[in-house]
Specification:
The strands form 2 sheets. A two-stranded antiparallel sheet has the order 1-2. Strands 3-4 form a two-stranded antiparallel ribbon. The chain is of the alpha+beta class and 96 residues long. The protein is 25% helix and 23% strand.
Length: 96
């Protein structure tokens, strides 16, 4: 049974370590720059289907006179306006 050992010169080891460190830093920066995405709607193919109705529980909200507002903040008592959108019309009434 033969066992062979290969000695890596110090310079090659240093370059390998430097390359690995560079890759690690580059990947860390890519992750740090990533931001989340908020999908602000109440219908999504096969996942969410939540139409909004008027107080009669039969008529879906429709048109620009009705608005949905997205709020965000560190607590329920400290919210900030993020976005608004109007409701769709016709067959898509009840959705924004």
């Amino acid at each position: 049974m033969n066992i062979n050992f290969r000695v890596i010169p110090e310079q090659t080891s240093f370059l390998t370590m430097k390359a690995l460190l560079t890759i690690f830093i580059a990947c860390s920066l890519l992750n740090a720059a990533a931001q989340g995405t908020v999908v602000f709607n109440n219908i999504h193919d096969g996942i969410v289907n939540a139409p909004i109705y008027q107080s009669d529980a039969m008529t879906k909200l429709s048109g620009p006179q009705y608005m949905a507002e997205l709020l965000a903040g560190p607590s329920a008592s400290d919210l900030t306006h993020i976005a608004t959108t109007s409701f769709l019309t016709g067959a898509e009434a009840g959705y924004f």
